[in-house]
Specification:
Elements: E1 7-11, H1 16-27, E2 31-36, E3 48-52, H2 58-72, E4 77-80, H3 95-122, E5 126-131, H4 146-164, E6 168-175, H5 181-189, H6 193-201, H7 212-223, E7 234-237
Parallel strand pairs: 1-2, 1-4, 2-3, 4-5, 5-6, 6-7
Helix pairs in contact: 1-7, 2-3, 3-4, 5-6
Organism: Oceanotoga teriensis
Keywords: Oxidoreductase
GO molecular function, one term: oxidoreductase activity
Length: 243
């Protein structure tokens, strides 16, 4: 098992990419501390606990760390998956929507990293994986808040990597479009879901959307000691959209 007895905090672990990563890590022997705004994890496991937390509030991220230490006694890794995306241009996006995306997508990552770094420094081969987006380097219309927030996550990751090497590694995973609950409603509401999927697939040279398995397997590599000489990198898992 590649993560045997490793204790990993995963934000946004109750759905989507975060849930997929949590389940994959458990398969590899990890002990998971999930957190986010949901009430509970969508799955039960003896090696997983959940702490409800508003990640935009530092004291609540510190509580996540405290609960992890109470339950498992250490922290070996952190995966920041929690995030939101709101549609809007410079003219149509409200100031509140812009700020909300920065608060959740950037401040939430900063808070969780700040809360966990002291404990991560105590462990050998500890690592942080932040979930960014290919849209952090590839802007598209109607994402005036989301794209800059994910660009900030990339640079935040690099700053952490530079400051805490060699004790703590930090890398940023850049998904493309992944079929998660966040976008599944589009297919459910579409008159022709297959045609819509095909249209989305055309965005990517690999001619498909990403899967939870694609994201979880890459996060597993980045959090594990198999990537022990990789830090400060942005890793595109986006079907070639950045070519």
């Amino acid at each position: 098992m590649r993560l045997k007895d490793k204790v990993i905090i995963i934000t946004g672990a109750s759905s989507g990419i975060g849930e997929g990563i949590a389940k994959r890590f458990i398969e590899e022997g990890a002990k998971i501390v999930g957190c986010g705004i949901e009430e509970n994890l969508n799955f039960k496991h003896d090696n997983a606990i959940y702490v409800k937390a508003n990640l935009t509030k530092f004291e609540e991220t510190q509580n996540v760390v405290n609960k992890a230490l109470e339950k498992f006694g250490k922290i070996n890794g952190l995966v920041n998956c929690a995030g939101i995306t709101l549609i809007g241009s410079l003219e149509t996006s409200s100031v509140e929507d812009f700020s909300k995306q920065l608060d959740v997508n950037v401040k939430g990552v900063f808070h969780m990293c700040k809360a966990a770094i002291k404990e991560l420094k105590k462990q050998k081969n500890s690592a942080i994986v932040n979930i960014g987006s290919d849209l952090g380097v590839r802007p598209i219309p109607e994402r005036i808040g989301y794209c800059p927030s994910k660009a900030a996550v990339i640079m935040l990751t690099k700053c952490i990597a530079a400051e805490y090497a060699p004790n703590v590694r930090a890398n940023c995973l850049l998904p493309g479009l992944v079929e998660t609950p966040m976008i599944k409603f589009r297919f459910e509401e579409s008159e022709d879901p297959d045609a819509l999927r095909a249209e989305y697939a055309k965005i990517y040279p690999m001619n498909r959307m990403g899967t939870l398995e694609d994201m979880a397997n890459t996060a597993l590599f980045l959090i594990s000691e198999e990537s022990s000489f990789i830090t400060g990198e942005k890793i595109g898992v986006c079907g070639g959209s950045l070519i």
